[in-house]
Amino acid sequence: MPAAAVLKVLVVDDQNSVRQMTRMTLEQIGVRNIHEAENGREAMDTAALQPLDLIISDYNMPEMDGLALLRAVRGHPAARKVPFILLTGRSDRELVVQAAQAGANNYLIKPFTADILRQKIEQVMGKLS
Amino acid sequence: MASLEQLKLTFFEECSEALSQIESGLTALREGAGSDDTINAVFRSVHSVKGGAGIFGFDGLVNFAHVFETVLDAMRDGELAATPEVVDILLPANDVLSDLIALSRAGEPIPASISSASRIALESLLHGHAAGKDAAGTDAAGSEDDDGTPAPAEFEGIDFVPVRAEQFDDAALMPEAAAEPGSAGEHTYRIVFRPYPELLNKANEPLYLLRELRQLGQLDLTVETDKLPPLAELEPDHPYLSWTGTLRTAAPREAIDEVFEFVVGDCELVIEADTAAASTGGAPAAADMLIWSAEPDAAVAEAESPVLFPVAQPTAAALPAVAALPTVEALPRVQALPRAEAPSFDMTAAAEPADMAAAPRATASRPTTGGATTTRVELEKIDRVVNMVGELVISQAMLGQVVHALPEEVRGSLLQVLDEVVHHTRELKDSVMSMRAQPVSAVFQRMPRLVRELATKTGKKVRLEMAGENTEVDRSIIERLGDPLTHIIRNAIDHGIEAPSSRAAAGKAEEGTIRLAAEHRGSRIVIEISDDGAGINPERVLKKARDRGLVGADTNLSEDEINNLIFLPGFSTAEIVSDISGRGVGMDVVRRNIQDVGGRISIKSERGRGMTIQLALPLTLAVMDGMVVRVAQETYVMPMSAIVECLRPPASDVCNLIGTRGVLQLRGGLVPLVHLSELLEIGGASDSDERVIIIGDAGDGSRFGIVVDELCGHQQVVVKSIEESYGVVPGIAGATILGNGRVAFILDIEKFADLASNQNLAAGVSRFASAAPSSNAIVN
Question: Mean pLDDT throughout B523-552?
Answer without folding.
Answer: 84
